[in-house]
Design goal:
This protein is α+β, with helices and mostly antiparallel strands. The protein is built from 2 helices and 4 strands; from the N terminus they run αβαβββ.
Length: 108
């Protein structure tokens, strides 16, 4: 469930409603933690995760163009802008006799 909390008294309800609809589509994924070292880079497999600074693969970041605008002026967005991935994940179980196979489809 998505809840939008306006930061000002004269917040724009139309914009908040649009953002809520967008996030409610359940196609956006992100990883966030107060500690940067605890954040997962969802653009990389678990075996390639590091404990150091994250350098995501921008190919999969939905809002990378927004982030580039700030980065070209050396404005750090790591504390206030979350990288969003847009895609689809589904897992299915297939049976063949007594054998079971799990198939996971990831589309980004």
């Amino acid at each position: 469930s998505v809840h939008v909390v306006p930061l000002t008294e004269d917040g724009t309800p139309e914009l908040a409603s649009s953002v809520k609809k967008l996030l409610s589509l359940k196609v956006f994924y992100f990883s966030w933690s107060p500690s940067p070292s605890d954040r997962w880079d969802l653009t990389r497999p678990a075996s390639k995760q590091t404990n150091g600074p994250i350098s995501s693969n921008d190919t999969f970041i939905w809002n990378s163009y927004l982030m580039m605008s700030f980065n070209q002026f050396n404005i750090s967005t790591s504390d206030w802008l979350v990288e969003l991935l847009c895609g689809f994940v589904e897992e299915k179980i297939a049976y063949c006799g007594s054998s079971q196979v799990r198939v996971c489809v990831v589309v980004s």
